[in-house]
Amino acid sequence: MAEVSEKKRLVALLLCFFLGGLGAHRFYAGKVGTGILQIVTIAGFFGIWVLIDFIMIIVGKFTDKQGKVLETW
Questions:
Q1: Can you tell me the mean pLDDT for 45-50?
Q2: What are phi and psi of 60, to 5 degrees?
Q3: Residue 45: C-alpha distances to residues 20, 32, 63 (Å)
Q4: How far is Cα 42 from Cα 29, in angstroms, rounded to an integer?
Q5: Tell me, what's the pLDDT at 41?
Q6: What is the per-residue pLDDT for 40?
Q7: How far apart are alpha carbons 36 and 71 in whole angstroms?
Q8: What predicted TM-score, i.e. pTM, was given to this entire model?
Q9: 3-state helix, strand, coil in the chain (%, to 5)
Q10: What is the largest CA-CA distance in the chain?
Q11: pLDDT tens digit string along 3-44?
Q12: Which of 2, 13, 21, 31 could form a disulfide with 43, with the two C-beta atoms 3.0–4.6 Å apart?
């Protein structure tokens, strides 16, 4: 079983929904490098990357920088 992150899943979900193209949810999770990459690739390959992240957050599979799952709402 994966470790649980102290980051909140609801915060990541809202950031992804409203500011996903800017990689805000990735910055929140500590994934600064991929957050910048999302900005540079025009909103994460025209929103596809953001949509995948959104689904990953909803189903509880999105992780933070240390690989811990954002599980707590």
A1: 83
A2: 80, 30
A3: 12, 17, 20
A4: 20
A5: 86
A6: 87
A7: 24
A8: 0.91
A9: 60, 5, 35
A10: 35
A11: 999 999 999 999 999 999 899 999 999 999 999 998 888 766
A12: 21
Q: What angle do CA 60, 66, 70 make, to 5 degrees?
A: 20
What residues are paired with 69 via a beta bridge? 4, 63
Contacts of 9 (CB under 8 A, 6+ apart): 57, 60, 62, 70, 71, 72, 73
Is the distance from CB of 70 to CB of 6 less than 8 angstroms?
no
Secondary structure element (H or E) that encloses residue 38, with its range = helix 32-40
pLDDT number for residue 44: 65
What residues contact residue 5 under an 8 Å CB cut-off, 6+ apart? 29, 63, 64, 66, 68, 69, 70, 71, 72
